[in-house]
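user:
I keep going back and forth on a fold encoding question. Separate attempts, laid side by side, tell us more than any discussion would. Would you put together a sequence-and-structure record for a protein of your own picking? Write it directly below this note and I will take it from there.

assistant:
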Amino acid sequence: MDQVETQLTLMDVKKDHLKIILATYKFAKDAKLWWKTVTNRHKVEEMIWDKFKELFYEKYFLISKRWELKDQFLGLIQGNMSVAEYENKFTSLSRFPLEMVRYEVDKTRKFVSGLNGRMRPFIMAQFSKVYSEAVERALMLEVDIKDKNARREQWKQKRGAGHLRKDLLGRGTWVVHLSFRGSSLHNLLLPLLCQLDLIRVDGLTGPYI
């Protein structure tokens, strides 16, 4: 069914009755007999696409499997997945609780509610009823967050490369903070600092504390 929907999207088929005609055109053997019984019980010309999928899944998926996949959908959250991975899984599982995503606004709301806490408030603040727009905003926000995290990490690395900070304490004692332990500068300064009675080294482990 996923392949059929992909082909219909590529063909830009929008009307439900045309989708159903094209989807059932190549039915054979058991599927063809099943579809014949459906046409006898339903007004196919008035049937919507979601109803067709619902009947199809009822026929070809065991009810226990459908309930299992429905439970997975209900509990689905982004977690450690990227937005793209989360959206793919969301789309795959949303085939089964069709009654929950029949209206696009409900589908969009469920997708947004499963996003990570850091992203969800921003997407909700600009909530769109259009599912594709919500997905696009989440993808763009993810890129922005990754970019900011990368810049923050670069700043931390530069800041921690090595610096001395002096704080004047009582009675003229100076504290030297070293954040470049193991560097050539650290090895050069340590013997000198240890010879000064008024200096204590802060942030080091060993006998010099």
User: Anything to note?
Assistant: Residues 162-181, 197-209 have pLDDT under 50 and may be disordered. Residues 2-154 form one domain. The longest strand covers residues 164-168. The longest helix spans residues 131-159.
